[in-house]
Amino acid sequence: MKDKNLEHLVPMIEKIIKRYFLKPFDKKNIKKKEDIIVVGLGSGSTVAELVKKVSTLPNKENFIFIPTSIQIKLIAEKAGLKFTDETKIYNLDLVIDGADQIDQNLNMIKGGGGALFKEKIIMYSAKERIIIADSNKFVPEFNIPIPIEVHPFARSTVTKRLESMEIIGKITNSPKINNRQYKNKGNFSSAKPIIRTIQKGYPFITENGNIILDTEFAGIVDIEKAEQEIKNIPGVIEVGLFAKKNNTQYYLVNSEGKFSVKTSSS
Asked: How far separated are the first and last CA of the chain, in Å rounded?
C-alpha cells in the first residue's frame, strides 16, 4: 500500500483478508463451480485497497466479484480478478463496502460516491456484509445530508416535494428513534435539497444517468419508513438511507490503524 494516507488501513484490511478470504480455505482447496464465493464490491478508497490486496492472494481464483462502480471495476480488472454479472446477485455470499455515516442503531447514510442504487441492491441481497469506515463516521445520530438519486426529468417536482417535508418517518413508539430535530423560530424547518455538482458547477451525473439531490431533513424518526416516504415521490430512483441489516460486521478504524468491530447479528 503506497499511499501514506491509507497506511492506517493495513492492519484492518489484513484481518479482513485472513478471516474472509484465507480462513475458509485453510483445510480445503475449493474447485467445484458451485462452491465459488461470490463477492459484491462497493466503492471508495478503502474497498479499492482491499481489492488490490485480494489480487495478490494465491487462492483468488476461488472468488468472483460483482462491482457496483466503474472505479472499482477498473481497479479489479487491472488486478486480474474475475467478474460475474447481475444474474448472480441473488446468490451473493458477501458484500464489502464503506459508509458516509453510521448511527448508534447501525443504520447508514451512503451515496457520497454516487453508487447508492447498485450498492443498495447488493447490500440487501447478500448473506453477509462487511462495512469499513473511519471511526469518526460512527455518530450518535445523522448530521449530514442524505443523497437522493433522481431522474433528471423529475428534478423540479422532486425538489418541490422534498422542500415540503420536515420530520420524516414519523411513527409512534418506534424502537428506532433518531430525534435529530432542528427548530426554526419555533417551527421545524423544511428539508433543504441541493443538487450535487462537480467542477465549474456542472451537475454530478451517476453511472445510471441521474442526478443527486443531497438533502438535509429536519429530523428522521424511523429509517425504513423515511426511506419509503422519499421513494414514493415519482422520479426518485434511490435513497441513501440504509437500514440496519443482520449478519453485518462494522469495522471501525482510527488514524493510528487501531480498529474494532461491531456486529449486527441475526
From this structure: 34
